[in-house]
Amino acid sequence: MYLVKVTVTYKESILDPKGEAINDALQRLGYHNVQSVELGKYFELQVAKSDRPIAEQVNEMCDRLLANVNMETYHYEITEMRTQA
Amino acid sequence: MYLVKVTVTYKESILDPKGEAINDALQRLGYHNVQSVELGKYFELQVAKSDRPIAEQVNEMCDRLLANVNMETYHYEITEMRTQA
């Protein structure tokens, strides 16, 4: 079993008004040393082993469903989990 | 300067219908080895050094704004960045 953590964020050229709104709110709360905020999505998947390499499968899932590759980029981290006996 | 990556997900006791919808969609696309999907939020902050310890500040920002601590839990990762000369 694998634990897969995927983060999806906008590409640099795409405006992120929600991230800016959060930055504004943090400034109002007094966190003046915050320089920028980017908002993205986070997915945590549990995936059983299969015939296919896990990274290949995760790439494909990101391209086909989890990210809009026209506007977004993704990163992922795959950890193998020990299953309980 | 610090790069702060925050992930916010629902507590275990809270239903996550969007995560389930994504899991259903992945199943329909043929990824039958996906066992569960949890959907969360992701924040990437650039924070300048200040008098206060960065971890203390990030904790406070999560508690006050980034997460709804009644329903959500958060994790963060802080990396110190080299500033360009």
Automatic annotation (TrEMBL), chains A, B:
Which molecular function GO terms apply here? phosphoribosylformylglycinamidine synthase activity
The EC code for this enzyme is 6.3.5.3
Sorted alphabetically, the keyword list is: ATP-binding, Cytoplasm, Ligase, Nucleotide-binding, Purine biosynthesis
Q: What name goes with this protein? A: Phosphoribosylformylglycinamidine synthase subunit PurS
Family to which this protein belongs: Belongs to the PurS family.
The record's section on SUPFAM superfamilies has: PurS-like
Residues spanning the membrane: none
Q: Where in the cell is it found?
A: Cytoplasm
Q: Which reaction does it catalyse?
A: N(2)-formyl-N(1)-(5-phospho-beta-D-ribosyl)glycinamide + L-glutamine + ATP + H2O = 2-formamido-N(1)-(5-O-phospho-beta-D-ribosyl)acetamidine + L-glutamate + ADP + phosphate + H(+)
Species of origin reads Levilactobacillus angrenensis
